[in-house]
Design goal:
Shape: globular
Distance between the termini: 55 Å
Radius of gyration: 21 Å
Bound molecules: adenosine-5'-triphosphate, magnesium ion
Strand order of the largest sheet: 1-2-3
Order of helices and strands: HEHEHEHHHHHEHEHHHHH
Number of helices: 14
Strand content: 5-15%
Length: 362
């Protein structure tokens, strides 16, 4: 789709700048895709949803198919940022990998791995924590939002420091590109700051240890859920990629809209209705303004029927592939084993470089 979508009220969080830099990056990627490495990941807190797909997953598959080296992290340690126990972890990790494979990530080209299996990555957290102040950690708007939605009575140290852990996720493999949703922009800034400060403190100007990574936003960097807030695995407002056609219909039927019958696409004034319009537009590959005009005075029920059909048609092949893959859990485990071994080798090499730069070689 070539349309530039209205990015809504949150441009002040750096979306406009990220889009500008992303456009330049896209040009370089097209010229020489093989020179780029990308890293992204998801928390195994539940099944992936449409926000993941249109926010980042589709972009990952596109980059992989262009020839960019793709590293995909199942962020199992980060499950513990906002809950005491990582529930049903094995099942959720495997479910996540199934979603990746069904969406088109190819384990022959993409490295799919988990935090807990790559100790050298986690070790980077220690020197990185020394490079940021407590005040900087406390100012992170995404962390503040997540604390507001957290079900924990007390805020854990991991909640405040996980953006630094994410910097380790990105920098252990020296990824230059990070295809993410809008909520991740503050974390990307933390990773850039850490790369810069590490280089200044321990590197030489002609030989920096870490590149400064860039976010790559999609056309839908903040898809809203059925309640009008960011679609999230942990907020009971998501349509899962693997939902059935009936479940999808039920969830969309229950989605929040507003009192105005005439349907328009106006993400700032009408976020809930516009999010539904956007979903249909993304699935149909059409302009959201045109989709809204096509519904016009027929109201929210007609819009919801269109959205439901559009989602179910668009995701039918992915859902069928996922059901097929789910029959072979052994394959999923092999994908992770291979990915973990590859990621561990990359992490060991970077940690050795870091220790050399810090003079910690004995
Ligand atoms: P949780 O509620 O457990 O935090 P989540 O739905 O926020 O889950 P994450 O695993 O935290 O998902 O995010 C994984 C990736 O998906 C990140 O790059 C994030 O920016 C992106 N993402 C998540 N939700 C959305 C959304 N609603 N719109 C666009 N991108 C999204
Ligand atoms: Mg999240």
């Amino acid at each position: 789709m070539t349309t530039t979508l209205d990015s809504g009220p949150s441009d002040d969080l750096g979306v406009a700048g990220a889009r500008r830099r992303g456009a330049e990056l896209e040009r370089s990627i097209r010229e020489r895709p093989g020179t780029f490495r990308a890293l992204t990941g998801d928390r195994p807190t539940g099944r992936l949803h449409l926000g993941h797909y249109f926010g980042t997953l589709q972009n990952r598959v596109r980059l992989q198919n262009l020839g960019v080296e793709m590293m995909v992290l199942v962020a199992d340690y980060q499950v513990l940022t906002d809950r005491d126990v990582a529930d049903r972890l094995t099942e959720r990790v495997e479910d996540l990998v199934l979603d990746y494979l069904a969406a088109g990530l190819d384990p022959g080209r993409a490295t799919i791995f988990t935090h807990s299996a790559v100790p050298a990555l986690n070790q980077l957290l220690l020197p990185f924590l020394s490079l940021v102040s407590v005040a900087e950690l406390g100012r992170n708007p995404t962390v503040k939002d997540e604390i507001a939605h957290s079900r924990q009575s007390a805020v854990s140290g991991l909640m405040f420091t996980y953006p630094v852990h994410q910097a380790a996720d990105i920098l252990f493999c020296k990824a230059g590109i990070v295809p993410v949703g809008q909520d991740q922009l503050p974390h990307l800034e933390v990773a850039r700051i850490i790369a810069r400060r590490f280089n200044n403190r321990y590197g030489t100007p002609s030989n920096p240890v870490f590149p400064e990574p860039e976010a790559l936003l999609s056309a839908a960097p903040l898809l809203l859920g059925t309640d009008g807030a960011k679609m999230s695995k942990s907020r009971d407002n998501a349509v899962a990629l693997a939902a059935t056609a009936d479940e999808t219909a039920r969830l969309i039927r229950g989605a929040k809209t507003d009192a105005e019958r005439h349907i328009t696409y106006d993400p700032v004034a009408r976020p809930e209705v516009s999010s539904l319009v956007l979903l249909a537009a993304l699935c149909l590959g059409r302009d959201p303004h045109e989709v809204a005009a096509g519904i016009g005075g027929r109201g929210a029920a007609a819009l919801k029927a269109l959205v439901t059909d559009a989602i179910n048609d668009h995701f039918a092949p992915l859902r069928a592939r996922r059901a097929e893959l789910a029959g072979d859990r052994g394959h999923v485990r092999r994908v992770l084993r291979d990915g973990n071994a590859r990621a561990a080798a990359v992490a060991a090499a970077t940690l050795a470089e870091v220790r050399t730069a810090m003079g910690a070689v004995y």
